[in-house]
Amino acid sequence: MTVSASVNAGVANAENPRQIIVVSTPSASSQTGSLTAYERAGDGWKAVIGPTPAMLGELGVGSPEDDVFRTPTGTFPLGQSFGREPNPGTRMPYFQTTDEDWWDEDVDSPTYNTHVHAAEIDSDDAENLYDSGEMYDYAVLIDHNPQRIPGHSAGIFLHVNDGDPTWGCVAIARDQMRSVLEWLDPTAHPQITIGIGLDGPPAA
């Protein structure tokens, strides 16, 4: 069994990101919003992808909680990326999934909120990253719970939109998701900001 931590060196806890993805929604209960990717340009930010429609949690956005389908609000690093498809050219750490790749979401498990590669997993609540379908053709971790605190939710990703509200993730169209992965660069310390009524990234 191989376990991957949910935090990647050089990605998490960056003070000066040069890439920011902003996800804005009109209200806390909204299941939809918009996503725009920005990169630092001189003294400000330049939009490079979007705005594009985004699907959010079934219960909207707010404080994260296990088994509550709500997208966490705040600013978080982007970490491990993966997909059922081969690496599209991202510079982020990437693995192509098989039916032996899982994300453990069991609050009582020692591998809670981590990627586990194993034929079987001793967990009462683990998501198979291959069998979950086309939404995980391309995905990247929204590392909202790097301390892996039980109760603060696990397995929050930016992934491909399947047309339905998510279980707390952010989902965008397949081509846009691929473009995001191609653009992301771990040396730019990419982050994602999710909130209500956002009109862009913070001042550079």
UniProtKB/TrEMBL annotation:
Keywords: Cell shape, Cell wall biogenesis/degradation, Peptidoglycan synthesis. The active site is at H159 (proton donor/acceptor), C169 (nucleophile). Pathway: Cell wall biogenesis; peptidoglycan biosynthesis. Residues 24-195 form the L,D-TPase catalytic domain. GO terms for biological process: cell wall organization; peptidoglycan biosynthetic process; regulation of cell shape. GO terms for molecular function: transferase activity. This is L,D-transpeptidase family protein.
